[in-house]
Amino acid sequence: MNFIEDGNSNVEFKCSKTRKNIFLIGDSIRLGYCETVKKELSDVAEVFYVSENCRNTQFVITNLRKWQKMFDDATRVDVVQFNCGHWDAAHWNGYEIPLTSTEEYARNIKMIIDLLKLMFVNAKIVFATTTAMNPDGSLGVNPRSNQDIDRYNEISVKVAKENGVIINDLNVLTRDWGSEKYRDYCHYTKEAFETLGKSVAQNLKNCCDILKYR
Length: 214
Description:
The chain has 7 helices and 5 strands; from the N terminus they run βαβαβααβαβαα. By secondary structure, it is α/β, with parallel strands linked by helices. It has a 5-stranded parallel sheet with strand order 2-1-3-4-5, sandwiched between helices. The radius of gyration is 16 Å and the shape is globular.
C-alpha cells in the first residue's frame, strides 16, 4: 500500500525506476479519490499519498518537508498534484471571516509552489481547483459558498499559471453536479468520488505522456 499512517516516519515511499511516480497532496476531497487514481494508473505509474487530511495551505506548507523525507529518492517524483481551498475559504464555526484571507491564500499558494519546486526538483507541478458545494444550499458548520470558492479558485489559478503550474480544474467538473452526488455539504458519494478519481487519473496520465521522453 502506498501510504503511511500519520507519524510513522520510518516508512518510505519507494519510487519506481521503471514507471512514473506521482504524489497526491490534498484535503478530504483528495482522500476520497486517491485510491481510484492509484487503480486507474496502475499500468503506468506508482501513485503515492499520505493518509492524513492535508487541510489548508498552512498545513501543507508546514508538512511538506516531512512528506518529502518519506520518499527514498524525491528526485524520482515525476508529478506532484496538490489541492487546498475548502478549509482556507471556510468560515470556521460560522465566524465572520474565513480561516485564510485572500491575500494570505495567494501568498501561501505561491509558497507551496516554490517549496514543491525545491523539494521535488524533477516534478511537474499540478494544482487541482477546489470542488463545488452541494447545490441544495447546505453549508455545514464551517460554511463557505460557491461564490467564496470561485473567488479563491480565481486567485490560486492566477498564481499557479504565473508560475508554470498545470491546472486540473475539478471545479468545472463538479459545478453542475446535482445534490444526488453529495453525501453532505461538500463531500461526494462513493460513485461520484470514483468519477472524480477517473478524471484526475486521466489528467495525470496526460502529464505522464508529456514526461515520457524525459
